[in-house]
Design goal:
alpha/beta, Rossmann fold, 4-stranded antiparallel beta sheet, binds adenosine-5'-triphosphate, binds iron/sulfur cluster, binds magnesium ion
């Protein structure tokens, strides 16, 4: 098994907001998250809207401060870093934001933009070294033939790839890609999927946040499922669809499978509408879980937080009913 790149323990992120209707209100966007990322792996994070995926990515990379918990990156305590030490460390990771428009200079060619990024992030490289690097970057993102073009003559997918090439120019040790294919039409999406696959083949370590289960199955090594700020299941990607999922994941899988029958663009994580207030003591799925009711576990599920239970190599679920295969009523 490869070495650990990042390890988080007990991450909590609370947001306090004020609204006319609800007054002062607290959201626990992360509610005690433990996570590990190993060098060279692709870790996918799935879960419905508002489950805390983007917050997790931002907190891990210290783009937003955690309320509590520990983050170790390459052996360093990331939360303890300040000032220059933090700035230097930050160069080692990058986040591709959800719905980000590649912010490209309209007057510069692709080659000039990459040259600019390299000047900034690799100041010790001379012109020859940069030219060599640019060739490699263009090849990695499949844009060798477009080096002398300006953004206006590039497709949406090509622009996103230039944006990714600029990120790769900084030689990050970890990339968090937040919904990198969202908002793209099918053809452009395929280009980005192809690029993500190439990055994986070149042993890039990244966290892939995605609603697209087809993409996750194809690209990720490992998958974590988030619900209301907690990770409720971790599973090797090739075992998605296992008969022993967390009841919430089982529901997601069934919803995605149904949509696969009806949609042409592949299955997605479907909003399954988990209601109820966030509970800090019990299981976050207690208010909606049919398994808890069927098995007479509801009181316990409302009061106690379920600990992870191993179901197989690299597979665990946080559920009191996990000893037996969990099957929900259709
Ligand atoms: N800056 C903020 N201030 C207040 N609440 C926030 C803030 N950012 C996120 N939240 C809340 O934290 C929770 C998690 O949000 P987050 O953006 O991490 O979800 P997500 O899983 O990425 O959702 P999506 O799939 O829609 O992108 C949500 O309830 C959201 O409203
Ligand atoms: S712990 Fe209880 S409420 Fe939570 S998923 Fe398992 S059975 Fe359902
Ligand atoms: Mg998000």
């Amino acid at each position: 098994m490869s070495e650990l790149l990042l390890e988080a323990r007990g991450l909590v992120k609370r947001f306090r907001s004020q609204s006319l209707l609800r007054g002062s209100h607290e959201t626990r966007a992360l509610d005690g998250v433990d996570l590990q990322i190993r060098v060279g792996e692709v870790l996918a994070v799935i879960g419905e809207s508002g489950s805390g995926k983007t917050t997790l990515g931002k907190v891990l990379l210290r783009l937003t401060p955690a309320t509590a918990g520990e983050i170790r990156f390459g052996g360093n305590d990331l939360r303890a870093l300040r000032g220059k030490a933090l700035r230097l460390k930050r160069r080692e990771f990058q986040m591709v934001f959800q719905n980000q428009r590649a912010n490209l200079h309209p007057k510069m060619t692709v080659r000039q933009m990459l040259d600019e990024s390299l000047r900034l992030h690799r100041p010790k490289l001379d012109a020859e070294g940069r030219a060599e690097h640019i060739g490699g970057l263009l090849e990695r993102v499949g844009l060798s033939a477009k080096a002398e073009q300006r953004p206006e003559s590039l497709s949406g997918g090509e622009r996103r790839r230039v944006g990714l090439a600029r990120i790769l120019a900084t030689q990050p040790k970890l990339i968090v890609a937040d919904e990198p294919t969202s908002g793209l039409d099918a053809a452009i999406k395929l280009q980005i999927i192809d690029l993500l696959r190439r990055l994986k083949e070149s042993s890039m370590t990244y966290m892939l946040i995605s609603h697209d289960l087809g993409l996750v199955r194809r690209i990720a090594d490992r998958v974590v499922v988030m619900l209301k700020g907690r990770i409720i299941e971790e599973i090797p990607a090739e075992r998605l669809g296992d008969p022993r999922h967390h009841p919430y994941t089982a529901r997601l899988m069934r919803a995605a499978h149904l949509s696969e029958d009806h949609a042409s663009q592949g299955p997605s994580v479907i909003e399954v509408g988990v209601g109820g207030e966030q509970r800090h003591g019990g299981c976050v799925y207690a208010a909606d879980c049919p398994v808890a009711r069927e098995r007479g576990l509801l009181t316990r599920c409302r009061q106690e937080r379920p600990e992870p239970v191993a179901l197989g190599p690299g597979h665990w679920v946080a559920c009191f009913a996990s000893a037996d295969p969990i099957e929900e009523e259709p």
